[in-house]
Amino acid sequence: MWYGRWGGARELNDVFLRVCRGRADGRVPVWFMRQAGRYQPEYRELRRRHSLLDICRQPSLCATVTKLPVEQLGVDAAILFSDIMVPLEPMGVRFEIREGVGPVVAEPLRDARAVAALRTLEPERDVPFVLETVERLKAELDVPLIGFSGAPFTLASYLVEGGPSRDQRETKKLMYGRPDVWHALLSTLTGAMAAYLTAQVRAGAAAVQVFDSWAGALAPRDYDRYVRPHMERLFEALRPLGVPRILFSANGGALLERFGAVGADVVSVDWRVPLDVARRRLGGVPLQGNLDPVALLAPWDEIARQVEAILAEGSGGPHIFNLGHGVLPETDPAVLKRVVELVHGKGSG
Amino acid sequence: MWYGRWGGARELNDVFLRVCRGRADGRVPVWFMRQAGRYQPEYRELRRRHSLLDICRQPSLCATVTKLPVEQLGVDAAILFSDIMVPLEPMGVRFEIREGVGPVVAEPLRDARAVAALRTLEPERDVPFVLETVERLKAELDVPLIGFSGAPFTLASYLVEGGPSRDQRETKKLMYGRPDVWHALLSTLTGAMAAYLTAQVRAGAAAVQVFDSWAGALAPRDYDRYVRPHMERLFEALRPLGVPRILFSANGGALLERFGAVGADVVSVDWRVPLDVARRRLGGVPLQGNLDPVALLAPWDEIARQVEAILAEGSGGPHIFNLGHGVLPETDPAVLKRVVELVHGKGSG
Description:
2 copies of one chain form a homodimer. Helix content of chain A is 46%, strand content 11%. With 349 residues, the first copy, chain A, is of the alpha/beta class.
């Protein structure tokens, strides 16, 4: 923890926020998606006694888990430990998180009746534990806290498929076959996520990341027709909060221009699109990414070569170093720490 | 079957080959990946008595299966019914094709010893049934026959992972950690596929398609370092055959320029990249694609809208209409036939 000139006041490491706002100053902040997770022995130990959702629901535990990678790795931002499905439970969705699979929904939602039955999310009433966790973290962290939610399309995909899907078959069938039901569903989810992220920011989150993990399954013309209006509404609803809005998608390379156009302040890019290519396509939008998480399982020389290539490709504008997807469970924590040091050394050089 | 002016001589419908060679004439040929498969009642009936590999190994059956969609749908090309794993068995790989999963390899191949143990493929000795099937089809079809193989990377991925993989973790670990073993493996597979495709063309295939289904999992810099030299060698080995060489990849949008550069005469694009965007990136290279196979499960109006959008996007140059991936088993054969008619009507307009 850093202390400022005026006694006990903590000095916030704000390089992440500065880069989100386009003020690069040559420094490259770094954090990792799933930086709290199964690669950490401490997390695995905790998970022997608590389910993932238990941890999300207990502010003290959840704050501890969120802080651990900040303390251990020296990353420049924390991200709330949670799951994108958490706010859906009070909306009436029953699900479980299955190890190695992801969310599995008890009753997939595929008709107008099921969409109409979704309850309105009131974050203060429905997910007070999330907001209490954010408040604790705001008081305890010396790096910015990133709040997050799923994007309407990705949440809808879990709800309609009933779990992760290779080709989003049921989701697209609903989208094409019952556009009225589809738009009602996305509209409901958009309103709920706007309320959820707004509450996180009011509780102390300094930035938000919207995870549209599955949007890359869509043809651009389908994105424009079935998803984009909802994303524009979501990002517009978040604008008055004044915090950076990051948009993440895996495998969404063909949609990059659209991610900028819907209102994202920062676009998270995966390893499939080099950052210099992404920057040409997105103009001045700050970029986040884009190491392949599998590369962290390589020998160090290969990892270092890739990190340096990414720093070079990202050097033409504001860049937040991250992975293109979450840290894999078999990743060595010492390797992540070494990557942070390499980025910080390079970034401030 | 069509008959020419000189009695019994069949007249070949060569519009597919003409478009492959860049002579568009405003006509758009059409065929579908997996146009022979489980969506057909006749195929399902056959599969009650024969395994997929049984069919591949019996020229009479295999030719019948290959021809059926040509007769039923009126497509402009046939593609040999087979599986990319077929030539690997005589090389010493034991595998089975599991329904709904794909190839499952008995002993995943992850070290130098296993790579060295792979036997050289001699198509005439090792897969005579494939060549006999091609010869029969050459004599019986009035549309061009497309031969095919897996690409070295995609075959290596099945061999190293032991089956389909979400993130190609073991494949990339071998690639990064043992580049010597990796390049030996890809070099062996490249030589084998060059021999395999050459034999198919000598037996009568009028074009070849190389399936690099998993290449889209790679960062472009990894593609350049670990895959591209082998693809260049493969396409160079095929050049003297004088037949169009089509390169397919799912999810390979970020690699399009590279697919052109390794020597593909035609690049097959999936629905994630609109054809007009692909054409700008690939210059004059003829394009194949790119309807989302899930869209075929939509109401007809939506399908027609998408087919027409794709025809418009593809109209700036040579275009072969196809899907971005294989036909799904729940597709209605009548819908496929209607798509062929729509493409033909539009294409010749």
